[in-house]
Amino acid sequence: MNHWIIAPVLLPAVLGALAVLVARHDILLQRVIGLGGTLALAVLALVLICSTTLTGPEVYFLGDWPAPFGIVLVLDRLSALMLLLTAALALPVTLYAIGTGWDARGRHFHALFQFQLMGLNGAFLTGDAFNLFVFFEVLLIASYGLMIHGGGRNRLKAGVQYVAFNLVGSTLFLFALATIYSVTGTLNMADLAQKVATLPEGDAALIRVGAVMLLLVFAIKGALVPVQFWLPGTYANAPGPVAALFAVMTKVGAYSVIRVYTLIFPPVTPATGTMFADLILPAGLVTLILGALGVLGARSVGRMVAFAAIASMGTLFTAISVFSQAGTTAALYYLLHSTLATAAMFLIADLAVSRRGSGSLAEARPSTPQSGLIAALFFAGAIAMAGMPPLSGFLGKLLILDATRGDMMLVWPVILITSLLMIVGFAQAGSLLFWKSSAIPAEPDPEPEDPPAALPFVAVGLLLMLLTGLTVFAGPLTAWLGTTVAELHAPAPYIAANALPVGG
Amino acid sequence: MSFWPKKGKDQPFRRRPGRPQKDWIAPLMSPALIAALPFLGALLPGLMIRAGRDACALSAAFFTGLALLMLGLNVPTVLAGGVVETRIDWLPQIGLNANFRLDGLGLMFAGLILGIGLLIILYARFYLSKADPMGQFFTYLMLFQGAMVGIVLSDNILLLLVFWELTSLSSFLLIGYWKHLPEGRQGARMALTVTGLGGLSMIAGMLILGQIAGSYDLSVILTQKAAIQSSPLYVPALLLILLGCFTKSAQFPFHFWLPRAMAAPTPVSAYLHSATMVKAGIFLMARLWPVLAGTEAWFYIVATTGLVTLLVGAKIALFKDDLKALLAYSTVSHLGLITMLLGFGTAEAATVAVFHILNHASFKAALFMTAGIVDHEAHTRNIRRLGGLRHLMPITFVIGTIGALAMAGIPPLNGFLSKEMMLEETTHVVWAGQAWLVPLLATIGALLSAAYSYRFIAHVFLGPVRDDYPHKPHDPGLGFWAAPALLCAIAVVGGLAPMALFGWIVDAGATAVTGEAVHVHLKLWHGVTPALWMSIIALLGGLVVLAAFAPLDRLWLAAPKPDAKRMFDGVVGGIRRASLGMTDRLHDGSMSRAFAIGTAAMLAAGLWAFLGGAYVPGTRIGAPMDPLAVAGWLLLVAATVALLFLHRNRLLALLLLGIVGLIVSVTFAYLSAPDLALTQISVEVVTIILLLLALNFLPKETPRESSPSRRGRDAVLAGAVGLAVGALAYALMTRDFAFPSIAAFHIDNAKPGGGGTNIVNVILVDFRGYDTYGELTVLGIAALVIHALAEALLKGGAANDRLLAWKPETPEAGDRHPMMLVVVTRILLPLILMVGVFIFLRGHNQPGGGFVAGLVIAIGFVMQYMASGFGWAAARMRIDFHVLIALGILIATATGAGAWFNGLPFLTSAYGYVHLPPLEEFELATAALFDLGVFLAVLGAVMLALASISRLAVRAGETVNARPFDIDPSDRRG
Asked: Which residues have a Cβ under 8 Å from the Cβ of B39 and sit 6 or more positions away?
């Protein structure tokens, strides 16, 4: 048995505990733990993705109990990919938090950050529906702590909304799991896949209710209309690096939808059929429109990026709703892109806002040090978010457009017009932030500031480099993703790896 | 992947005799490299500016020149009819590959872009002032140049789209280069919006085109004329692609962005609006001409749009007083002319279009540069403030005049040739049955064109010298005027010896456009043809118009004109306002609306899902109604209903909540789940205590904030959801599992596999110990968050101020720590500790376990804090609760990981029976160690939460008592 599979959960758990135990009075030690942890996680994720690419899905039977009676972790290409994405995001975000000193503005930043990673990794690895709930809780509570990190009236206010909305989601999750368990008598996802497919007809209505409630839970996480309300306030008020890390939080919802609705409730399921596609497609498109309009109409930089994040989730769910080889491949590519792009944009926005002293887009303020460099980064970030060439957002959109030919008349105009809205929105904001400000003479600085830290720029640069990598190696990457998706749509190896009892 | 240029498949490729191509030179000549060079060059100017402005310009020029040289090396191949290709796989899954091709058309355009680019770099070096950041300028310029070269050398139309959008983006930077000017910023945004719109529509068009043709490579698409034109998707694809071309090439009604883009520095205008950006649309129409042209739809859309643009642009240009605006609209007009020629759909007209592209680029770039020189020297480019410059700026005068005469189409300049050929083509065109219409309108266009060209000369250079120029003008240095002079020379030579200068490239370009072998005969004199008469009418008519300019101008000024900027701003502003409403009003942070919408959605989705599937009610028979159960149920309902009415009193609400929790615990016990009952009751106690502490800081009453109608809405929603959940629960509880559930396995294996007879505990610490592991972390994290939150509140700021100013709403009792309570709690402490340990130890076989034990012991400590005061208790509690939490997690992890040493997975338990005299035989299980982790984490979490809330109390004025009691009876003695 490959014990490395559980390491992505245990490593941050131990480091988080250690950060509390030995390092709670020393920020440097916390930083070492935090940075070391994310680095190690990145290496680990790379090892795991190579391993699963070579060997196929692997199952880790916790407590050595056979499936479906105990809990299993399943490492397949998709979960390994999500692990790698999380690690690739966590590293620059940690660097940024250290470089800007955000981590020292409240207690326990690095501990909570590690616990957040534990929750994320646990959610990506688990092969058990109830365990998914548990790790949703881990990542929710840690994210709440990170969100209100540093305090402040607006942040706490937004935090209450965030946690309240997510508690509703947790409750719904329990309802959904109770329903699904009461009908099928099992919680193991592979087992569920088999049982749901052969469910007696009289149970169809109830399993449909359970499945749709589950979908809504994931929709809350993924900020899909009409349960997206928590996102703008949360992201706009969260500390910059935390908002950047949250770029992957919404993807947990997307990941779960892909996992559950290709494995347990694929479109061939007699009870549910294509009902999820029918729900997700309109919701995704409306989310996209709402997000794009939000980018155009936002009054602050933070909210603008938050709405761009909503738009990217809309795009992502639109691609997911196709539930085809091409559609899911496009969705995964776009998922990678939009996570990194959103994170980069939140960091860049934080750079600009922290120097400018205000995120308001109502008026121009005097230009600030390094505004040229930040403007260039903003330009690149906006290109990525709006899906313009040459960055990966454009390729992602092309993949999605190509995959949605069947619904061309409906999907294409929405995707293309919202792109334009976002371009206009970002152009307006960028021109106000960086161009108009140059017409205002800079305020004389009363005292020379500390030399600006390079670390935040390194962090943003890392993210942009990753985006460039996605662009340049789009071909091989998409080929790899294609195999991943083929595994998702034909999950026999995944189910077989669980070694379920025959006839059970 | 091949980086080596291949010979064209269709065209025979001849090597020039006597000069065998060496292998090393082949990759250097790759079109991919030519397109990449400007991008590589874009990196340099930003750095080289540190070495000086000359070095900066030279670095840009070097890469441009290098690319031009590479292009030149390919000329023999292309002229021989070859097509040089480079193919690099990029995203083959959707047919997006870095495939480049260099044929006649690409050669011509790339030559224009790079050649004029070189001149622009020279010109810009002298144009930009020291205050302008030149490094940025050349970086943007090179990016733009690379994007343009990319467009014209792409074989893959998706790759072409990439470059297409890049020109929009880089031109945004160039137009907004003078970022302090509001016109520059607005012009840049407008250009980006309009060309961005076109670009996006073109994405759709290209995707459809590729679908019809079965490939995104031009080398395939260009052979699919029949398939494309017969496809039902031809018209949509055509419209979408043309929208892209028309917006880029500023065709009516999208022409308005181009003059606004004139806020850019003049080198930018000269580059973008003579040879490059606006020619991209033209290029694409020419590129796809073989497969898209020749249909009625093409003719009527393209030719008509071109004709209207020709006229509208020319008319507006005539009356513009700003030199650059005049040139901008003249550009619009000439682009219309070229579009019209392409729209005619005949090979001859397309050839003329190709020729005019070259001519227009040469004289228009020269004219823009002239305007820039005038502006630079006289500090104005307002025609009304100029005049008489021929005396002061003789060199500029000559250059400007030659350029303007070429634009007017005066023989023997190159403009005359293409204009006459254009007029000739119009005579063959029948528009909707009318043979006279197009020639007449084209002649009018040519006439206006001549008129504004004359005006450019007459009102700027001719006339008397004035004494009120903003700045006394004089001719600039050679470097500044060399570039336009060279372009004028081309205009002259091109007119006199057209075959030598242009013949070969027009042949190559037109051959590529039309797909037929074209051999043009360019000459000045065609004999007395209708076109000659039309030309003469236009040239003479232009003079008449110029003579009558003053009255015409008054008419023009009096006429109402649609203001494109206002309309554009109106549309964009309208959308923006609408979205402002959406973002601000809908996402204002209102929780009650968000929840109402979310809940309604959940309800609707659930109902929809239920109704869409078959439902067979379950067959389980309910348990008999026990009076005890009914009483409990009634109590639960009563408490809940009372809560609805009394919830504004927070203390009462909490008490009612306590009742609900209590009934739930009792229900668990009643339903034979003692573990759950025990856990639930401990959790209740701890939660209520913590909430009571928190309530201390809140007002006693919740204010009434929502309107009756909103409460009504919420009542309906909440009632419906409650009913739905109740119904769901009923449906689930009255049915059996569809399949045997996993519970049977747990019952069978708890003792033999997990070593415990308490199945619930074995599930918690063994079967699903991993869930517990997650949840104990959740508890620990929650406590850390509470601690961090309290810290943040105490850090200073509004919350801290409020705490400092906090006054209890009701008077406090004088005796905060009554002696009786203190004494009792102290006696109780060891008892509770022992109970805790007992509960912990029996957990594996009897109800209990680490979770409950942690809570019980926490209650014991909490009692001390409550009775004796926080300060007193804290001083005696020497453990930092952080340590407990961390240790809990670490112990649980270590226990789980211990299994690794036996080669077993995480959390695999082991147990054995130990006999230690004099004790009875007892069991040792690793699960107990794991449970210890749970115990510590729970205890630590509760205590840390308590301590954090207490710290707020201290900040709010709670004093720390030095002695255990406020009123010590022993004091009374004396």
From this structure: B142, B143, B146
Residue whose C-alpha is closest to residue A115's, from B924, B941, B330: B941
Please state the length of chain A.
504
Identity of residue B802: R
Query: Alpha-carbon distance B461 to B368, whole Å?
Result: 15
- For residue B924, the cross-strand partners are B912
Contact A81, A125 (CB under 8 A): no
Q: What angle do CA B138, B141, B147 make, to 5 degrees?
A: 140
Q: pLDDT-based confidence at B966, cuts 50/70/90?
A: low
CA A294 to CA A306: how far, in whole Å? 9
Q: Which two tokens stand for residue B807?
A: 């006054």
Q: Is the pTM of this model over 0.90?
A: yes
Cα distance from N-terminal residue to C-terminal residue, chain B:
102
Dump pLDDT digits (tens) for B654-679.
999 999 999 999 999 988 888 889 98
- Rounded to the nearest angstrom, the minimum Cα separation between A142 and chain B is 6
Q: Do residues A279 and A214 lie in contact, with contact meaning Cβ atoms separated by under 8 Å?
A: no
Gap between the Cα atoms of A381 and B445, Å rounded: 45
The pLDDT mean for chain A works out to 93
The residue-averaged pLDDT of A230-246 equals 94
How do the domains of chain B map onto residue ranges?
295-522+530-571, 628-703, 760-974
Q: Is residue A501 one of the residues assigned to a domain?
A: no
Structural domain boundaries, residue A99: 3-440+455-496
| Structure confidence at residue B971 (pLDDT) | 65
More reliable by pLDDT, A312 or B528: A312
**So what's the ipTM on this one?**
0.95
Spatial contact of B446 and B538, defined as CB atoms under 8 Å apart: yes
**3-state DSSP assignment of residue A107:** coil
Q: Whole-angstrom Cα distance, residue B65 to residue B48? A: 17
pLDDT tens per residue, range B754-803: 888 888 888 888 899 999 999 999 999 999 999 998 888 888 777 778 77
Query: Is the predicted pLDDT of residue B234 greater than 80, yes or no?
Result: yes
Q: Which tokens is B256 given?
A: 């308005």
| B574 touches A147 (CB < 8 A) | no
User: Which pLDDT score, from 0 to 100, does residue B6 have?
Assistant: 45
Res B962 pLDDT > 70: no
The residue among B602, B801, B929, B931 with the most chain A CBs within 10 A of its CB, best to mutate, is B602
- Residues whose CB falls within 8 Å of the CB of residue B903, separated by 6 or more in sequence, listed in order: A1
Main-chain phi, psi angles of B914, to 5 degrees: -120, 140
A306, containing H or E segment: helix A301-320
CA distance B643 to chain A (A): 20
Domain-located, residue A257? yes
- Count CA atoms within 13 Å of residue A357 on its CB side: 9
The closest alpha carbon to B526, from B426, B424, B428, belongs to B424
**Residue A443 confidence (pLDDT) above 80:** no
Q: Which amino acid is at B908?
A: T
Q: Computed over its alpha carbons, how large is the radius of gyration of chain B?
A: 43
Residues B196-231: tens digit of each pLDDT: 999 999 999 999 999 999 999 999 999 999 999 999
The answer to whether A293 contacts chain B (CB < 8 Å) is yes
Please indicate whether, in this complex, the C-beta atoms of A215 and B580 are within 8 angstroms of each other: no
Give yes or no for a contact between B937 and B782, defined as CB atoms under 8 angstroms apart. Answer: no
CB B862 within 8 A of CB B942: yes
Q: Residue A72's beta-bridge partner residues?
A: A61
What is the count of structural domains for chain A? Answer: 1
Question: Chain A 66-95, CB below 8 Å of chain B: which residues?
Answer: 68-71
- Please, are residues A251 and A89 in contact by the beta-carbon 8 Å criterion? no
Q: Which residues in chain A have Cβ-Cβ distances shorter than 8 Å to B136?
A: 372
Contact map slice: B 571-590 vs A, CB within 8 A: 572, 575-584, 586-587, 589
